[in-house]
Amino acid sequence: MSEHIHGDVLHYEFGGRLERTDIAEQDNNRNYDELAISLAAGATWHIDEQNSLALVLQRSQRNPTSTELYAKGPHLATSQFEFGDASLEQETAYGVDLTYRSAHDQWQAEISLFYTYFKDYIFSEEREGEEIDDLHVYDFTAVDAEFYGIEAQLDYTLAESDNSRLLLSLMGDWVHATNEDSGDHLPRIPPLRIGSRLSWTCGNWDSGVELRYAFEQNNTGPEETATDDYVGMNLDVNYRMDLGNSMAAVLFARAENLLDEEIRHHTSFLKDEAALPGRNLTIGARFEF
């Protein structure tokens, strides 16, 4: 549910969501039945025709999943042996976002600052030195946590005609997250990342080349290893064919990791076991209807 109120200079927006979760575990006759309530309010100040400043306040709740509550067994996709916690309560977040936008004929820019405090933030934490069937043991747990960070993007049109456009995009993001109960860093938090993309569209064609740099991540949680920095370079080409009746076919080719770097995403459970593929090419088609 959402409501919008428009003014000459200020624009207000309010929203809310109710979500009920009812989970029954048959083996141990344990049930989870809770209603999650989320509320948000925002205001946008239109400074002039090109510039605006937006503030969003929110309080959101998330019910734990059945896995987080009752897991007890292997998760082979992530090489884990997981244990849930039936006593987990709702995860509640209190957040504030501040966003500045500037839109002009040739360029657009956006920068956002955010802060979120979590009550009972749910995540999986590795047990020190324990394995079951050669799988690392993880427990789902909840702690009070603090997240804050920044995101920014700039889009600049280098050239444009009736049916084509050459666009340069620059972007970056950074987040810091801590366990407020222990003072430790939270695990699997991405490092500072910056990047650029040069994209070209012409009629049914859409292509681009992107370059991303991820800094090393040394702010690690307990039992977590650091990850090195890397440069990722990708290239993609798409051709869209209109088939009529609101249907389309898209032929695509994507070349990834063109620099053949050793890339390990800090957010991955498998980063210590396997890096991402080296230089690779994917060709395919998809249908939209």
Shape: globular
What is the C-level CATH assignment of the largest domain? Mainly Beta
Helix content: under 10%
**pLDDT averaged over residues:** 95
> Which homologous superfamily in CATH is the superfamily of the largest domain?
TonB-dependent receptor, beta-barrel domain
Residue fraction in strands: over 45%
C-alpha termini separation: 28 Å
- The CATH architecture designation of the largest domain is Beta Barrel
**Radius of gyration from the CA trace?**
23 Å
Number of domains: 2
- Outline the biggest β-sheet: 15 strands, mixed
Instruction: Give a count of the beta strands, DSSP E runs of length 2 or more.
Output: 15
Secondary-structure element pattern, one letter each: EEEEHEEEEEEEEEEE
Query: Which residues form runs of ≥5 with pLDDT under 50?
Result: none
Give the class from helix and strand content and strand pairing.
mainly beta
Quote the CATH topology of the largest domain: Maltoporin, Chain A
What's the layout of helices and strands?
Blueprint: E1 2-6, E2 10-25, E3 30-46, E4 51-62, H1 66-70, E5 72-75, E6 80-83, E7 91-103, E8 107-132, E9 135-160, E10 164-179, E11 193-202, E12 205-214, E13 230-244, E14 247-256, E15 280-288
Parallel strand pairs: 6-9
Antiparallel strand pairs: 1-2, 2-3, 3-4, 4-7, 5-6, 7-8, 8-9, 9-10, 10-11, 11-12, 12-13, 13-14, 14-15
Describe the protein's architecture and organization.
This protein folds into two domains: 1-186, TonB-dependent receptor, beta-barrel domain (Maltoporin, Chain A); 191-289, no CATH class. Strand 11 (193-202) and strand 12 (205-214) form a beta hairpin. It has one helix spanning 66-70, and strands spanning 2-6, 10-25, 30-46, 51-62, 72-75, 80-83, 91-103, 107-132, 135-160, 164-179, 193-202, 205-214, 230-244, 247-256, 280-288. The two termini are 28 Å apart. The protein has a 15-stranded mixed sheet that branches. The protein is globular and about 65 Å long. Helix content is 2%, strand content 67%. With 289 residues, it is mainly beta. It is built from one helix and 15 strands, in the order ββββαβββββββββββ.
